[in-house]
Amino acid sequence: MVTPTPLHPRQTKRPAAHADASAIPRVLPVSRPGRCAAAAGAGIFDQVDETDPFLSVDIFRRHGACIPAHPHAGCVVATYLFPESTASLRCRHAHGGDDVLPPGDLLWLDTNCGTVHEEVPDNARATVRGVRLIVNRAGRHARGAPVQTVVRADAMPRWSEGAVDLTLVCGQWDEREVARAQGERTTLLQLDWRDDALRTLTIPCDGRRWVALIAQGEAALAGHALRAEGGGAEAVTLPPGVWQLAGRAGARLIVAGGEPLAEPVVYRGNFAARDESDLVALTRRYQQGEMGTLPPIAE
Questions:
Q1: Cα distance between residue 254 and residue 45, in whole Å
Q2: What is the pLDDT of residue 142?
Q3: Is the sign of the CA dihedral 47, 49, 51, 52 positive or negative?
Q4: pLDDT recorded at residue 287
Q5: Three-state SS for 172?
Q6: CB atoms within 10 A of CB 149
Q7: What's the pLDDT band for 1 if we cut at 50, 70, 90?
Q8: E strand or H helix at 277, and its extent?
Q9: What is the rounded CA–CA span in Å between residue 48 and residue 155?
Q10: Strand partners, 116
Q11: Of 3, 16, 85, 106, which sits most exposed with the smallest number of CB within 10 A?
Q12: CA 162 to CA 159: how far, in whole Å?
């Protein structure tokens, strides 16, 4: 009789020198915003003290849902579609960006001083699943124009370690790097289990802050059981170190890392601002039409 991989492995780590209490993985609350049934999801929101530079990390599922035109400013909106999604998204913004995002690709929209954008599926009956990162850039590019880039699936490094398949969606991991992300420190890594397996996950000590979020199935990381459904933790912080990781066949884990800004930020109405007066200024710019408008898509 085959003994399945245990999902509660003993917590093991080779601690870094001068480790302290902050070097302990911690569970992060995961919420499910009441958006609409067609755009359900689960993610980490409003926990910037723990997730800086990420304002949110969201696993989304949309069935035929068009996200209507809405503004963003002072942040990066990174949208990655899981390869098994059955529709593409047309992603437009008011400053000329217009790209089709097929399954497996990543859209990187640096909103800078602000723009209006929308996402429209090419099939109203299909399902789109993926990850959305909102990365803080408050005060960094106040006068820069919005820039939209697509990272194609064939540009993403893929490799296997035992029964686990890994995809580097953006950023850097070990010696691997996504070409368009040269110098970009935001990293998104996807791990998929083909079979029950134990392994380790090494989080680098390079100044970046890391979080892990279960996207489907069951896994256990650094002594914390992670379940996408049915209770249990869903997200944890990951300090530098070597952590034990187990997963069931079909599990998917998302690991995101970025360099914290360690500065105050106010994030409301899709605007990332340095303070309340900056937020008021961004809101006024939007209300006065300075972030642009999107014409209807021609039939």
A1: 16
A2: 63
A3: positive
A4: 94
A5: strand
A6: 15
A7: very low
A8: helix 276-287
A9: 30
A10: 71
A11: 3
A12: 10
Encoded tokens for 54: 């990420």
Contact by Cβ (8 Å): 115, 95: yes
> Can you say whether residue 292 is alpha, beta or left, with left for phi > 0 and alpha for psi between -120 and 50 degrees?
left
DSSP state at residue 146: P
Reduced to 3 states (helix: H, G, I; strand: E, B; else coil), residue 20 is coil
Residues forming beta bridges with residue 34, ordered by sequence position: none
Helix or strand run (H / E) with residue 286: helix 276-287
Regarding beta strands 266-268 and 41-45, do their DSSP bridges make them parallel or antiparallel, or are they unpaired? unpaired
**Per-residue pLDDT for 3 more than 90?**
no
Q: For position 65, what pLDDT does the model report?
A: 63
3-state secondary structure of 179: helix
From residue 75, alpha-carbon distances to 109, 116, 166, 210 in Å are: 9, 13, 27, 18
Tokens of 16: 């870094």
* Minimum mean pLDDT range among 29-43, 180-194, 233-247: 29-43
Tokens matching residue 75: 């942040």
Report the C-alpha gap between 66 and 118 in whole angstroms. Answer: 8
Q: What is the pLDDT of residue 37?
A: 40
Q: Would strands 89-93 and 209-216 be described as parallel, antiparallel, or unpaired?
A: unpaired
What tokens does 14 get? 């080779």
Contact by Cβ (8 Å): 74, 139: yes
| Strand order across the beta sheet in which 158-161 lies | 158-161, 164-170, 187-193, 252-258, 209-216, 235-237
Output the six-digit token pair for 284. 């006024």
Q: Do residues 243 and 203 lie in contact, with contact meaning Cβ atoms separated by under 8 Å?
A: yes
Q: Using CA atoms of 255, 259, 265, 270 in order, give the dihedral in degrees to the nearest 10.
A: -50
Q: Report the predicted TM-score, pTM, of the whole model to 2 decimal places.
A: 0.89
Do 285 and 72 meet the contact criterion of CB atoms below 8 Å apart?
no
